[in-house]
Amino acid sequence: MDFRTDSMDDMKVVCMEHRGPYNQIGGVFQKLWEFTQKHSLKVEDSKWLGIYWDDPSTVPPEELRSEACVTVGKKDPLPDSDDVTVRLLPSGRYLIGTHVGSYSGLGAAWGEIWAEIGRGGHTMRKSPCFELYVRGGDDGLPEEEWVTELCMPIE
Which domain range does residue 146 map to? Predict the structure, then answer.
């Protein structure tokens, strides 16, 4: 996996909660897509990402907390709904690992980026880690061409 550090601007995201094994979040992304369509949110040029709150090596799979998210414009009006949470992911520096391939390889990719945190002497910043889905899923590409960026907030 390739690693780089980069600065990101803050991102306003609309999120839908998922509880359970991380690899079962796909259905929540579908529900979030349906929510955006129902409420006419403009997401054609948006970024789709998953926020992962817990360490799967210490939290039982059925208790893992994650969120399916999509970026929205900072001034876009949003519907008042209990189905979603609006978050502002703060700007700052991130260690970014680029994973190419199927989503089934993301667990191992997270292990690699955590190892890189230790090797690189990076200090984690208090902000959520997330996956940024660059290409794949519904793009019609074969799985071996899917691109996911794993983003770790650092000082």
Answer: 2-154
